[in-house]
Amino acid sequence: MPPKELSYRASLIGPSGIRRLFDLAQRSSGVINFGIGEPDLETPKHIRESGKRAIDLGYTHYTPNAGFPSLREAIAEKLREENNIDVTSCNVMVTVGASMGLLLSILAIVEPGDEVVISDPCFVIYEPLIHIAGGKPVKVPLMEEDDFRMLPENVKECVTPKTKCIIVNSPHNPTGAVMEYGDIRGIAEIAMDEGIYVISDEVYEKLVYDGAKHYSIASIAGMEELAITVNAFSKTFAMCGWRIGYVAASKKLIDEMVKLQQYTAVHAPSVSQVAALEGLKSPESKVFVEEMVKEYDARRRLMVEMLNNVHGFKVKLPKGAFYVFANIKELGMRSENLAELILKDAGVVTVPGSAFGQNGEGYLRFCYATSRENIKQGIERLKNAIDKLKVK
Fold first, then answer.
1. Residue 138, pLDDT score
2. pLDDT tens-digit map of 210-235
3. What angle do CA 351, 375, 317 make, to 5 degrees?
4. Please, which pLDDT band fits residue 6 given cuts at 50, 70 and 90?
5. Domain segments of the chain: what residues?
């Protein structure tokens, strides 16, 4: 007999729109990649050395499912001091990157039929994870005229008796938007009024510019049982490949998520946990982050200035993350078609806005976590390709 059908759950999930163009680019040489959101910087030397020592010292065995107690305590201390979130190590678990943290958070609270409010556009992982849990994504459109912020009044319109959770992401991927305190406060009030959980994806918290500030929704009084803070070391310390993140929430929620991790990832990589602890504890890390943000700020300004000189591109200066969300509506092309044309004719990888949701159509995402030389060369190539298109 032929094999039985594969799961309906798997069929709901399509391939990543980011990875598709990235994979196409691998077939060509000399491509400049503005697609994948990964720092081009190396993990700081003191963190790398800590990882090497961990191997030599025998940190190659299983760890507690929630992570090493020392790392959990260091994360709790960081959250208390930097984010004004009143937690102890009992409120913290270490995960295999923020992606696993998001999955465990959603699985712990979302049941089949529950609605989860997300932004549109949004990070590509949210909708598939909601489908895996059997939930239904409900999308809040983000508008350029609002600087792509997730506004409480728009969130409220999407809330129904079936709403179980809201996912907020600030600084935001793909737009670079940074939510203001009033936005965070307003969504917290909605959550408290309705007893709705809020998952706050804060992976880009350090990457803010022009005096913008990052606010954690878990710091607001009354959100202790409802807020789930998800973060990672990937962007802060350029540790993407180390696969190390964390979740902070009520002890009740953390206990449930630890059980889920026991039977899936088991625990985060032991060596990565030791390296992450070094990142949190060493004074050298603060210097690294400060210099990194300065460099990204310079790249941000360079990319926006150059893109605004490309025919048909209109770009606002984003306040956070390391992305530019360029308006290309004047060109009259679908974002996917334009991204493919730019890859083919200019050897430059971008991500179509449609990969992040229906409301992302009409935009291209550019990542400026690459060298200034690459930015100059890549945007110049792009400009030449668009000028040829204009002539046609």
1. 98
2. 999 999 999 999 999 999 999 999 99
3. 70
4. confident
5. 8-43+285-391, 46-282
- Mean pLDDT in residue range 75-95: 98
C-alpha Rg value of the chain to the nearest Å = 21
Model-wide pTM > 0.85: yes
Distance CA 317, CA 147 (A): 10
Query: What CATH class is the domain 46-282?
Result: alpha beta
- Could you name the CATH architecture of 8-43+285-391? Alpha-Beta Complex (3.90)
For residue 103, give Cα distances in angstroms to 171, 225, 368. Answer: 20, 19, 27
> What b/e sequence results for 78-89 when a residue is b if at least 16 CB atoms lie within 10 Å of its CB, and e otherwise?
bbeeebebebeb
Q: What one-character-per-residue DSSP string does 267-326 give? A: S--HHHHHHHHHHHH-HHHHHHHHHHHHHHHHHHHHHHHHHTTSTT-B----SBTTEEEE
Sign of dihedral through CA atoms 176, 179, 180, 181?
Answer: negative
Return the pLDDT at 10.
Answer: 76
Euclidean distance between CA atoms 323 and 155, whole angstroms: 24
- pLDDT at residue 21 tops 80: no
What's the number of CA atoms in the CB half-sphere (13 Å) around residue 213? 10
